[in-house]
Amino acid sequence: MDIIANYGTTLVLVAALFGFLMAWGIGANDVANAMGTSVGTKSLTIRQAIIIAMIFEFAGAYLAGGEVTATIRNGIIDSNAFADTPDLLVLGMIASLLAAGAWLILASYFGWPVSTTHSIIGAIVGFAVVSIGPEAVQWSKFGGIVGSWIITPAISGVISYFMFISVQKLIFNTDDPLNNAKRYVPFYMFLTALVICLVTIKKGLTHVGLHLTDGEGILLSIAISIAVAFAGWLYIRGQQYNPQDDSKMHFANVEKVFGILMIITACAMAFAHGSNDVANAIGPLSAVASIVAAGGEIGGSSHIAWWILPLGGIGIVIGLATMGEKVMATVGTGITHLTPSRGFAAQLATAATVVIASGTGLPISTTQTLVGAVMGVGLARGIAALNLGVLRNIVVSWVITLPAGAILAIAIFYVLQICFS
């Protein structure tokens, strides 16, 4: 308690610095692989991906994140265990931010798409065990996280597999692929818009003062999705398609139609990611700021101070712009060859999986969801379409993420104790 009383402002400033570093790592790794399919299919340039990420990450975090960003009482650790020693929780959260951020930046340097969620969870578990003991960790939830390594990619992989199979049957394996693309792509636009609207209305609009019943929310989502599909239909009809392009690349005009859809799914992916993963950076930072502001009293949840969300958003955008290219390359071109139609199936499956899983309270990994979806698209073309060497490296990086975060957090936690003792 003396540490918080004597060094409160310094602790918040250090937490803000390390929170910015964590957001930087999220931008370099998680947002990069979320946008990797769009950039890998050349539907978006890196600059366009950054602009989309900037807008929709903020929108997802604000609208679908709700008023409370991180509920530490119901998280991976039991905050009640720190009731008598809140200074340990503050130092531990700061150590976790630095440990997870450092690991994400290292992984991004090597082009490994790892989980930001699991990075911060591993770090929090590490400091909790050495500061209070194993009883401070809610191991039942930890076990669910390990199980999500298999469940999450499997769900998104199955969705993307059948999504791309439907595209093949309805469009590519027909006598007139281009006209069928014009006919059916607006329907896929409807599905994409519906995913975004449902999660927004279900989770976030009470935060901005709009209260709807479930029935009203579903009707509004359907109405907006129909409008998006109609606008997409008009846009597609107005585009010029050159038959000679198909002689240079088979189905070039069909892929051009899907390129339009990739932009919409990129928005959906950024929105879904913002609603789920931005809290990894600003959640622990919010916890530190609220505990210090309360003079050491640990509340059940941490509310966002006005400056925290912009800090996280700026860090994410800078991370994507400066270090995102390698992870984009791994996801966009390394696992399997992606075209706009394949990338669409992967991205829509990922966004849908994030929305579905958000209701369970399990801290799923957007990274693992997307990798599973890309694998599903590859499997729709046969096992030979997958680069198994790249997949092996990705899985290994997933496995070592939790212990890497824990070990780094333990070392940093001890250093911080020495510095502030």
How would you summarize this macromolecular structure in one to three sentences?
This protein has helices at residues 2-40, 46-64, 86-110, 116-131, 139-172, 177-203, 214-238, 245-248, 252-277, 279-293, 308-323, 325-334, 340-358, 366-379, 388-420, and strands at residues 68-70, 302-303. It is mostly helical and 421 residues long.
Secondary-structure blueprint of this entry?
Blueprint lengths: L1 H39 L5 H19 L3 E3 L15 H25 L5 H16 L7 H34 L4 H27 L10 H25 L6 H4 L3 H26 L1 H15 L8 E2 L4 H16 L1 H10 L5 H19 L7 H14 L8 H33 L1
Antiparallel strand pairs: 1-2
Q: Which class best fits the helix and strand makeup?
A: mainly alpha
Task: Measure the end-to-end span.
Answer: 11 Å
Order of helices and strands: HHEHHHHHHHHEHHHHH
The pLDDT mean sits at 83
Instruction: Give the count of helical stretches.
Output: 15
Profile the largest sheet: 2 strands, antiparallel
Please estimate the helix content. over 70%
* Strand segment count: 2
Shape: elongated
Low-confidence stretches: 66-74
Strand content: under 5%
The radius of gyration computed from the alpha-carbon positions, rounded to a whole number of angstroms, is 22 Å
Strand order of the largest sheet: 1-2
